[in-house]
């Protein structure tokens, strides 16, 4: 974009003045206690240019230099980064009430219906009501149990589809298969039907790309969010992309709602199956003119679209990319794969697929899932929080308005917490291991892939159940060979940064069925034998 020089210079001058005023104010506040240490930043932009293309890794390195609580400046915004379990616990347990809001950002404004969603809703009655709605209809113990057959059915469908593909020579893009499964499962629970054909197709690829694009855009530290006068200029083009993406999501959400209003269904999809799926409940509330929080505004179509958007974006790629990382780690660690398959064969046998009722009897599998979350948390910097008031943490002043980033990725690799932190070793979570009692549900701050405190992931119970069931079923159902002549020791494990942690190179595999054909619902022995013999 061409920006006239006088306008640019004027903008920078105003930015310097605004930032200076903020520093003077924060300097006065900081007299009581020092601000946390941190690297010196650039004029105006602060530390933004130093973040690199993988900010969670840069911030991990900075923690080694400045300690587990350090300070950055993004334009005019004060930022603190928590990079140890102890410091994270200070923020998310001791001071959680003070950090229960999210800072303003262009993603919430331009994609998430101007903060009308759940993820970015200000902490208060409306946020509470939205969480309650989700808990009641999707994530409570009862709702989870009611929807168990949906999850098991969709996972079985994915596995059957993979068993069919195993007879072909084309490699499978595992993340894509897992994404179709995660998305269809969530869709059946929320809008009462699948959104993709089981083998995915173009629509599924497009949807995954949309979620990945959203996560990439949300992961960009947008200069316009931090240097107010540069905001209208949108120097990185992020806002323009967000607006375009929002229109595509909005079309999709309108499609879901209009189809339900018309009582119809698009070609090729099963009719709606739940008269009490989340969409039905929300539409009924809208028609009855009920209020979201019993007190504020009535439920509107925008509320419904914003909530569905949250669920479809926060709940799909997070789940499928964790499954993809798990499979990649197990392909690299055949001894661990053998151990987990032995456990699965012993508990489940070879004549059927894994069911959710098997999961409590699979401790080694549970350890595999924890170890995967430790090394590959799907949101490496969690979601940001904002200080509602001044507070003190670890002897440092944290002024009101400071943005908090919790480096979940760095905490999972902290050598002070985890012996041999870079080694994939699930046994550390088994009885007798160094971390036998640790779980991922927000009370052990060394392992918080779902965050912690009041704003902990709303879909934790669903996400954890899906990741565990999908991984278990894939490991039980197949042996895995890498495609394209790749060898396990050379498998590329690089990360591509976004708000969620994608693999830089998607995992391409050849599944080789290892159960009786009837377990997959396959009765065609010839196609089964062909894939067994390859
Ligand atoms: C592997 C799966 C998942 C991971 C690792 C994950 C991780 C996270 C994290 C780190 C946060 C921020 C928590 C914080 O601020 O402390 C979050 C928030 C959230 N997640 Fe998840 N998530 C997953 C699956 C899901 C699913 C399946 C859904 C819904 C279908 C979901 C919906 C949400 C929502 C609505 C929030 C915002 C909560 C709030 O602001 O109150 N997530 N998630």
TrEMBL record:
Catalyzed reactions: a 3'-unsubstituted flavone + reduced [NADPH--hemoprotein reductase] + O2 = a 3'-hydroxyflavone + oxidized [NADPH--hemoprotein reductase] + H2O + H(+)
Protein family per UniProt: Belongs to the cytochrome P450 family.
Annotated organism of origin: Oryza brachyantha
InterPro entries: Cyt_P450, Cyt_P450_CS, Cyt_P450_E_grp-I, Cyt_P450_sf
Pfam families assigned: p450
Keyword Lyase: no
UniProt pathway: Secondary metabolite biosynthesis; flavonoid biosynthesis
Transmembrane segments: 6-24
Subcellular location: Membrane
GO CC annotation terms, alphabetical: membrane
Binding residues for heme: 457
Cofactor(s) listed in the protein's UniProt record: heme
Matching SUPFAM superfamilies: Cytochrome P450
The protein's name: flavonoid 3'-monooxygenase
Topology in the lipid bilayer: Single-pass membrane protein
